[in-house]
Amino acid sequence: MCVATRFFVSSPVMGEALRERLKQSSFASPYQEAVLSVLVCADYLDRQVEKICEEYGLTTPQYNVLRILRGVYPAGHARCDIIERMIHTAPDVTRLIDRLVSAGLAQRTKSEADGRLSMTYITEAGLDILRKMQPAVDQVNAEIAGRLTSEEAMVLTSLCERIYGAEVKNSA
Is the overall model pTM greater than 0.70, yes or no? Predict the structure, then answer.
């Protein structure tokens, strides 16, 4: 039996920007459209953060690590704890941390509790660069706030968590 492939045509209002961005008039399903929409949105936001990072000589993974370390300041994290908290997994976090240490934005010491572990801490220079970057980061957030109500932002968060939340629970 031959099964015909049906294409989902999104409503004229929904997915208009996505159709224009991808130069595609229809999608196989509303799920395909949703996945593509989330990916395009994530790429857009990544590029906004990347621009800010470039102005300060950082990569987005380095910025991510500094944010993680700022979150526990003045304490630090072992490399494995940093890896667990990263938004995007990085292939070589050790080298990433090495570059932050070389730039004076982080420091590494042996763990007092377990000599086999090294702990990474954000330095004052690291905190300072994050403070300098904050107005630009706030501007990206303000741009989103200008496009979504707080209720819509909460719904978006909830929907995204429904998609990736099972993986988070399974890895915990």
Answer: yes
